[in-house]
Design brief:
mainly alpha
Length: 114
């Protein structure tokens, strides 16, 4: 069961996003959901990229003709997956806040010029 736990937020995000094609309301729309997801994904990927990286210089195996600071094993596929999982969790929180009206309650009710 624990093996499938990271798939849960990704699947739930996909299902909720796809439901926006069929359920129209004033909440999170299709484009709004995709834009928030992609912006959040791009921010998180740059936070996760340096985690666990050892440079060629640190490992003592500098390949001739390459930058000594280049990573030995960047492990981009695993980092992309965990970025997607983390982004899905954040997107689900965003979805719940918008759909429950918590964001609307925090917004000012009058305009700037009123």
């Amino acid at each position: 069961m624990m093996r499938y736990l990271p798939y849960l937020p990704v699947a739930l995000t996909g299902i909720l996003w796809l439901s926006r094609f069929f359920i129209r309301d004033a909440g999170v729309g299709v484009v709004n959901g995709v834009v928030v997801f992609l912006i959040t994904w791009s921010l998180i990927v740059f936070m996760i990229l340096p985690i666990g990286v050892r440079s060629q210089e640190e490992s003592g195996q500098v390949i001739e003709g390459t930058e000594p600071g280049a990573p030995m094993v960047p492990d981009l596929a695993r980092k992309a997956w965990w970025t997607t999982v983390a982004t899905s969790v954040i997107w689900l929180v965003f979805f719940l806040l918008v759909e429950t009206g918590a964001f609307a309650a925090m917004m000012p009710q009058t305009g700037f010029w009123d």
